[in-house]
Amino acid sequence: MAVYIYRCAEHGTTEESRPIGTAAAAVPCPVCGSSALRCYTAPRLSLGSSTRRALIDATERTRDEPGVVSAPPPRSGGRADMRRNPALRRLPRP
Ligand SMILES: [Zn+2]
């Protein structure tokens, strides 16, 4: 299976998984049903690790689907962080 990317003029890109060589020139947009034309992209062939590939995919996904949080991140350890990171000890002190 290969992932083909199609673009609707109003709703952006959508992906379709199909066997290699069976990509249609256009598919109906899943949102509005109008014709979404195929976008030619670089093949996603990689010899890298699956962890690296997952990170790249997650980073690319944030363009269209940014992560939404409900609370700020937990506070860092303050003094404990300074002891763990030697670079912070070199910062000027007031
Ligand atoms: Zn659309």
Automatic annotation (TrEMBL):
Xref: SMART domains: CxxC_CXXC_SSSS (SM00834)
Domain Putative regulatory protein FmdB zinc ribbon residue range list: 1-41
Organism superkingdom: Bacteria
InterPro entries attached to this UniProt entry: Regulatory_FmdB_Zinc_ribbon (IPR013429)
Disordered as annotated region, ranges: 58-94
Protein name from the UniProt record: Putative regulatory protein, FmdB family
